[in-house]
Design goal:
The chain has one helix and twelve strands, in the order H-E-E-E-E-E-E-E-E-E-E-E-E. By secondary structure, it is of the alpha+beta class. The protein has a five-stranded antiparallel sheet, with no helix packed on it. A three-stranded antiparallel sheet has the order 9-3-12, with no helix packed on it.
Amino acid sequence: MRAVRLVLIPIFALILAVGAGSAVYASNNASWSVSYNVATATSMVETTAPFNFGTVMPGVLTASTPNDLSISTNDPAGIQITASSATTAESGASPCVPDASRTVDGSSIVLTPTPVTNGTTATKGTASAPGNLGAPYNLFSAVPTEQGAYDEVMGAQIVAPANVKANSTGCSYTLPVNFVLVAQ
């Protein structure tokens, strides 16, 4: 009897181990999950040539000239565009001899933004009231949440300060205007 037990116990243990292992691998279903993030992608291109307002009268607001920014974004939270300018001295090609004391700043540039156009998915945003670029200026009081490609059209005007110095011969004031696209 003892000999039978010595043979049957290892055989029974082997059958149990193989059976248990088979139960683990017997399933014909499996599942797993995949997670990923999509980065926010925004871009902006100015599609209008630089402005040249020609000769302006100090203290007099010029007619509005349209400017167009082409925007592309996948950000459902929306975007803000901040415009700014810097103080600049007169400049120009010959015969201009620039006078560094003749300067103007961004406060002479007045922008009139509009809600965005050409988008298809969400709110067009609310344009800010017209403002000058003496300090950074947000184009929207309520941001557009449009996705895809769309446009921001704004009017630009110049009001040269009443005390601005006339340019030297052949010179002009050229103000840089920077637009920064800010994801919300």
